[in-house]
Amino acid sequence: MQDTIDDLLNLIQKAVDTGYPRIKLKVRHGWDIEVLEAVRSAFPDLVLHVDCNAGYDLKDDLEILRAFDRFNLAMIEQPLCYTDLIEHAELQRQIETPICLDESIKGPRDFLLALKIGACRVVNVKPGRVGGLHNAVQIHDMAYNAGIEAWVGGMLESGVGAGICAALATLPGFIYPADVFPSSRFYRQDITEPLIEQNENCCVVLSETPGVGFEPIPRLLDSATLHRQTFER
Q1: Of the listed 24, 59, 116, 126, which one is catalytic?
Q2: pTM over cut 0.90
Q3: Domains along the chain with CATH numbers
Q4: What per-residue confidence (pLDDT) applies to 32?
Q5: Is the model's pLDDT at 201 over the cut of 90?
Q6: Which of 14, 24, 26, 59 is catalytic?
Q7: Checking CA distances to 43, which of 14, 184, 208, 229 falls within 20 to 30 Å?
């Protein structure tokens, strides 16, 4: 979200010029249909999806959510409250645009239930939200076997977490561009060696070493540490 639509259009143009393969717009009441009309007018062929951050209600906002179908969106991410799996299924039956669940999926069981009732056609997998890398791989496998599109989201991780997300995103079921950014996008000083970087195609450069491949630098990790606890057997 920006202060004005013109500011938003300028920011999108910079991203397009840089080569990013898709754009995610945050939307909310009062910053949705008018914004999408302006963006689609300026960028008719752009791969675009919206993230609602659970800001809409099925009963009160159905017509607005239906109106999103006009804009050829890749998906609508988390339109309703994270607890409303049943209402997401009801909404998906009433709109053409795929629903992507994010906050609703806190682990593999949540995704299993979402699949059973048809609550989504896309899933955003964040290792830090779903209980770690093992659970994230399980959800990937379930989505892949069910023909559900999946992608890897981010939670403003340091290079350690972002490296895990980048490695996860190489699995075959993750076919939509991930929310993994270079270290310089959010941090003046990241804590890993190497830093998370992108190549000329806006793809994250993966480490070729075993493991995560983005190791914390002890000196920088110490400088960012707020609390330390030691557990003894």
Answers
A1: 126
A2: yes
A3: 5-181 (3.20.20.120)
A4: 97
A5: no
A6: 26
A7: 184
